[in-house]
Design goal:
Elements lengths: L2 H22 L9 H9 L2 H22 L5 E11 L4 E13 L3 H69 L5 H35 L21 H10 L2 H22 L6 E9 L4 E9 L6 H67 L5 H35 L10 H4 L1
Antiparallel strand pairs: 1-2, 2-3, 3-4
Helix pairs in contact: 3-4, 4-5, 4-7, 4-9, 6-8, 7-8, 8-9
Length: 422
């Protein structure tokens, strides 16, 4: 299949399929299959570590709910010596005691456990999102290298045909042998560039599969026709910030720190220890049963601890505000890149079409003996550069669009509750 025919088929398929991809949520033709993406992201180390962090916080939640106080059993024995009577009496006592959390602290501890789990869940979502960004970036690095291989292979094919035509003209005495040497040199140079591009594509593919072994690299990928960003920046900003995992994570962390500060303030009133005591005294002549209460006294330590934890909460709140401001800046940059990448693609497409048409006219003129070989080879080289620029611009526009979709949770969305149960 010729390069032009294959390219035309890709464009037609992308045009027919493109609108349904974005509107219906189907798999995009220039992205890995959804099943492979899910396996790749679920098995990514960032996601696995975050999933372990979530399970850890779920275990900690049970600790917060139950509290860290335990029953203590205390036992002792002694000997009473009555000097005047010359008696020695054995005595012993046993006590069961347990500190009791005040009711307000129980509620705060429950909230801390729930907020910590929420923070870990946001961290898992953020890890999934970051792994998706890495996959998208690595995938398009490989696609760009593949595009260079494809374009250079096309260039080699054209130069080879050109050299064969020059050889026939030399044999017929219609061209000097110097032109054949020039044509063969152009083929050799194009082959060198093809081999270099093939090596870069192989390295990019190896890097992609090293990070995401579940991704199977296809032999060919039909490139999606870029689509314009029709919604405004405000719409995309609202979409991305509406359920942003990174922002949710730092806000949840700020909430945890606020609850920890509240817990420290509550701890300024110490928890009492209540116990039951039974004693056998005077050699068994006296049986003693009682209840006792122990209350610790603090001399400034608890107040200082509460102030320190409150400062940590203030820092966490400031960090949440910083992340929100940074995200707004990042969203604007991502949106502008998507908009401008599409405009760049349109310009590159128009330029490549005009330059390729001009190259074909010059090649035809050479076949008719109305142009020189140097002009024909130069036109072919310029057309090849324009074609490569167009394909790279096309990939840039698609990657920018997909990045926007990914940040807005409209692409490669994690199914809530799946990872937690694994």
């Amino acid at each position: 299949m010729s390069y032009q025919l294959r390219t035309t088929m890709f464009v037609v398929l992308a045009t027919l399929y493109g609108s349904s991809v974005m509107a219906g949520g189907l798999e995009a033709i220039d992205l890995p299959p959804k099943s492979q993406v899910e396996d790749a992201l679920d098995s990514n180390l960032l996601v696995l570590n975050a999933n372990s962090g979530l399970k850890l916080e779920q275990a900690n939640q049970r600790k917060w709910n139950s509290g860290n106080y335990e029953f203590n059993l205390r036992a002792g024995t002694s000997q009473r010596h009555i000097v005047n009577a010359g008696q020695k009496l054995k005595e012993w006592d046993v006590a069961l005691e347990r500190p009791l959390r005040l009711p307000n602290k129980v509620g705060i501890d429950t909230d801390i456990g729930a907020a910590s789990v929420a923070r870990a869940d946001y961290a898992l979502g953020d890890a999934y999102h970051e792994a998706g960004r890495l996959l998208l970036r690595s995938w398009f690095v490989w696609l760009r290298e593949q595009a260079q291989v494809r374009v250079w292979q096309h260039q080699v094919d054209i130069y080879t045909q050109q050299a064969e035509m020059v050889e026939k003209r030399v044999q017929a005495g219609d061209a000097p042998k110097l032109e054949l040497n020039i044509a063969r040199a152009a083929v050799a140079q194009a082959n060198v560039s093809l081999q270099q591009a093939s090596l870069r594509a192989q390295m990019a593919g190896n890097d992609l599969q090293r990070q995401f072994p579940a991704i199977v690299l296809p032999l060919e990928v039909a490139i999606q026709t870029p689509q314009a960003i029709t919604e405004s920046y405000e719409v995309w900003q609202a979409r991305i910030l509406d359920d942003n995992h990174e922002l949710g994570m730092v806000q949840a962390q700020a909430k945890v720190q606020e609850l920890m500060a509240a817990r420290s303030r509550a701890d300024q009133v110490p928890d009492p220890t209540v116990g039951l005591r039974y004693a056998n005294e005077m050699g068994g002549n006296e049986k003693v049963t009682g209840i006792f209460l122990t209350v610790p006294f603090s001399f400034g330590q608890r107040s200082a601890t509460a102030q320190g934890v409150q400062q940590q909460a203030d820092i966490a709140n400031d960090q949440a505000k910083f992340v929100q401001h940074r995200l707004q800046t990042d969203i604007y940059a991502t949106y502008q890149q998507a908009v401008r990448s599409y405009a760049t693609y349109q310009q590159a497409h128009d330029a490549a079409l005009a330059i390729t048409t001009n190259s074909e006219l010059i090649a035809k003129a050479y076949r008719l003996g109305e142009s020189s070989l140097s002009d024909s080879l130069s036109a072919r080289r310029i057309a090849q550069e324009a074609t490569l620029s167009e394909e790279i611009a096309q990939l840039d526009a698609n990657e920018s669009r997909y990045r926007l979709e990914l940040d807005a949770h409209r692409l490669w969305v994690r199914e809530e509750g799946v990872s937690e149960s694994n």
